[in-house]
Amino acid sequence: ENLLKHIEDFSSDNIAKIEEFRVRMMGKKGEITTLFEDFKIITPDEKRAVGQKINALKNAATEKIAALKEFVENSDLAARECDDYTRPANCEPAGTRHPISLVRSQIIDIFSRIGFAVADGPEIEDDFHVFTALNFPPEHPARDMQDTFFIEKNPDILLRTHTSSIQVRVMQTQKPPIRVVCPGRVFRNEAISYRAHCIFHQVEGLYIDENVNFADLKQTIKYFASELFGEKTQIRLRPSYFPFTEPSAEVDVSCNLCAGKGCNVCKYTGWLEIMGAGMVDPNVLEMCGIDSQKYSGFAFGMGVERITMLKYGVKDLRLYFENDLRFLEQFKAIY
Ligand code: PHE
After folding, report:
1. How much is the pLDDT for 215?
2. For ligand 1, atom 10, which residue shows the shortest CA distance?
3. Is 246 annotated as a binding residue?
4. Least confident of 43-47, 226-230, 231-235, 255-259
5. Cα–Cα distance between 245 and 283 in angstroms, integer?
6. Ligand 1 center to 130 CA (angstroms)
């Protein structure tokens, strides 16, 4: 009875102490093992009752040890290491940066090295900064309830659908030369799936000066792509359309997973789409108070979630928002 109580009372979150307990109970000279030895020398009519008791002890000890071990194994690894008092450093478990923050700062760093400053702006915007100043015609589908979260109608107040609204604010308040990147959270009325979310992050860029041309845009993007994805990365521009740029392009980078040969990540094309870009439409410059005879500029915009997927092989966008530590801790070594 005493031994049963002892087993029930035992507790430890130290794996060495638990093992010590196991040996003390069930090792070669363990207390329960010894009882089994004694069992051989008692009279046959005592065997039944005594046998039941010893078996009960053995089961109690086995269960106890398994439960304690499981508890220790499930508890945080870092916390367990704190039990080792011989460790030289203190062992506050360090957190990790979110992959979206990591990649956003990588993007900002790359552009800051060629003279781009960071600009910020509000997430709740008006129609002018998100659409009108960017040359969206009144009937453009992006203004539809399908794509945009409206807070108020007439006059329209809404959650920005892109960070181009920051660029409008910069053009309204600064004189060229302007060189900014605009990171921020954007909102679109989309069904959530592995490749779409109603909240995501963008970094857009804007460069305005005298004589800025399409070659400047291409060279800037080429520099960016090789800094982010590696020196050998190639870029490809395909004609596209945006209301605020003319001409406009979609930018692809060569798929570094298959060296341009084609794999399931790049849908067997050898190319991955990373951003939209183009020369700022003179109408936009004028609406933001910049002389389009004197100045020209280029703009580009990319989704941080998408860039992170391509760079680190993340296959489901929803992972970014779930805060599952098993996902987040994989980025511990990156900064
Ligand atoms: N604003 C565009 C978007 O959100 C991206 C873009 C920015 C395209 C600048 C061209 C130039 O999709």
Report:
1. 98
2. 277
3. yes
4. 255-259
5. 9
6. 11
**Please, which residues have CB within 8 angstroms of residue 102's CB and are 6 or more apart in sequence?**
308, 331, 334, 335
Report residue 335 as tokens: 């900064």
11: number of Cβ within 10 Å? 12
Q: Which of 191, 201, 91, 205 is nearest to 147 (CA)?
A: 191
pLDDT in tens, 270-295: 898 999 999 999 999 999 999 999 99
Integer-rounded Cα Rg, in Å, for the chain is 32
Q: How far apart are CA 110 and CA 112, in angstroms?
A: 6
**What is the ipTM, given to two decimal places?**
0.98
Q: For residues 212 and 209, what is the distance between their CA atoms, to the nearest angstrom?
A: 6
- Specify the residue with its C-alpha closest to ligand 1, atom 4: 162
CA dist 146 and 94 (Å) reads: 42
What DSSP designation does 232 have? T
Among protein residues, the one whose CA lies closest to atom 5 of ligand 1:
301
Nearest CA among 73, 85, 284 for reference residue 172: 284
Strand partners for 204: 182, 301
Query: Which protein residues touch ligand 1 with a CB less than 6 Å away?
Result: 162, 164, 204, 242, 245, 276-278, 299-301
Query: In this structure, are residues 278 and 246 in contact, taking their beta carbons and an 8 Å threshold?
Result: yes
CA 308 to chain centre: 7
CA distance 307 to 274: 7
